[in-house]
Fold this sequence. Notes:
This is Acid phosphatase. This protein has twelve helices and twelve strands.
Amino acid sequence: MYSISLFVLLFHWMMVISALPVDRIRKGKYFDRVVIIVFENQGYMIASNDKYLSSLTSQYEGFSLTNYLAITHPSQPNYVALISGSTNGTVDDKEANIDRNTIVDLLEPKGISWKVYQEDYLGKCLSLMSIVLTIVRIGSCDKQMKMGLYVRKHNPFISFKNIQTNKSRCEKIVNSNELDKDIKDDNVPQFVFYTPNMKNDAHDTNMTFGSNWLKNFFKSRIHQKAFNKNTLFVITFDEDDGSTTDNKVFTILFGPDFHPSTNKKYDDKQYDHYSLLATIEDNWNLGDLGQQDMYAKKIEI
């Protein structure tokens, strides 16, 4: 009888714990959540002249980084750099399998939740076995892991071995449809990396198309507390369109509940993708990855 009562008590305690809201977050120096959305291959002037993109820092608290540089060309090395502090030998958009650490290896020891939302992603880690299963199911896997409008080259997390081979980490790379459920459940993680598909990110379309997508994306989400509470939203581009030598890309930091220390609307200091990584590391006192993030200039928030 005693053992049964103890079991019931333990079960009840576990249910209470699992029902607790996700408010038990790790407070950051500047923000408690970061949402990074990466667009594709648009020149700085084209993006900065877009009416909607340029309005976000006036609609909400925030500022534009007017001298923010991508690292290289083409796409994939920039995505890899954003989360690992190095291009890690990637020089093209072909399949990469990298044996290095990423921001994930800094977030997890601090208890900071993370998730990667990928539009049109099938929701399976692309290990050899899942590739085989995918081919059997739909036969649409090629060497660059292109599946409909999803491309692996824009999903850097999947290219790191210590994520590929870790089931719990793989499960945090999800189809973007899960975001609305996470918002509804007040379960949005503290580190969010969101990749639009090849149309919505302006890669296969243009800036107007991408901007309209972003406007609709934010329309039903950005004012929800579960998504915006003390959240830094970052809009950036992987690389420019190749029309300039400096590879400058449009980048803004903003949010309805983002509270920078100054009222500046522009910051003309030179930053790059490593700077964004270093700033996130600094926000939660994560340390660094021992790569270019060690030396990068942190964004002044």
